[in-house]
Write a structure and sequence with these properties.
This protein has 301 residues and is of the alpha/beta class. The chain folds into 2 domains: 1-109, no CATH class; 110-301, Metal-dependent hydrolases (TIM Barrel, Alpha-Beta Barrel). 42% of the residues lie in helices and 11% in strands. The chain contains 12 helices and 11 strands. It has helices at 11-23, 48-51, 76-88, 116-128, 152-160, 184-193, 207-213, 217-229, 246-249, 251-255, 257-260, 265-294, and strands at residues 2-3, 28-32, 34-35, 38-39, 55-56, 70-71, 92-96, 131-134, 166-169, 200-203, 234-235. The strands form 4 sheets. The protein has a 4-stranded parallel beta sheet with strand order 8-9-10-11, sandwiched between helices. It has a 3-stranded parallel beta sheet with strand order 1-2-7. α1 (11-23) runs parallel beside α3. The radius of gyration is 20 Å and the shape is globular.
Amino acid sequence: MLDSARHFQSVAEIERLLDQMAQHKLNTFHWHLTDDQGWRIQIKRYPELTRIGAWRTPPDAGRDGEPMRYGGFYTHRDIRRIVAFAAARHITGGPGSDMTRHAPAAGGAPPLHENIPGNRLLDFAGEAGLVALIHCDVDMPFAKQGSKPAYLEPMIALMKRHPKTTIIWAHLGLGRVVRPVKDQAAFIVDMLKDPALSNVYFDISWDEVAKYIDSTPQTAARVAAVMNQYPDRFLFGTDEVAPTNQEKYLKVYYMYDPLWKLLSKDASEKIRKGNYERLFNQARIKVRAWEKTHVKGSGPY
């Protein structure tokens, strides 16, 4: 992943990185463009996103020659150029944006479920065969007890508008501050049963999710029962940042030991690795086919 949201890079710098990726046979590029620290995508309908959200004042601004303002953004032409540059080197992936609670830099802009350019990104993902990984908490932090989850219905509506796009809802909608809402398991089961949401999958990575699933034997048993019933719809992956050894890399995996023991052999295999391999291998085939049709000069090395 290239995190241009936190630290802005020029187009030339990104192209050098893509050349290096191609030299090392790395073929997946996740380009992170929105987060707390900056909004990097030009949205012509909402110019304030980049006029305000693309810039910040560093804490040491003005000291020892440090700039008073830091940031930048990518125009539509920049993004098309970089995506085409990557595709010509047989590298798939591209721009990614976070939703709602993960994008304070967006300020007062509408969330993705109301955002025309954002919806177009999901349309394109479905057209080209890309997998869309969406980070969106199911509720706002410190929500009033008994209130409806603020973002559940908009998220479901968003997913239903893009039935041809493979969507993974990251972390089951949980966050560092956002705890499981009332009847969280029930609404996930309702989503799993809904034929209009058959394109949606659920990610259980992250220690913040593991601590809730394994909080009690009863909770782990309820989650395992759902996963055993719908083994094709859940995925796991570690999210440890820069682990220094294998033990730290597998921290979250080991946190799930109580859950793994409750899964059937089939469900355990699919959730721990099979579903990830299936979804992303299918995506690579679809993206290669799209490139062959739409990208000039695409083909084998």
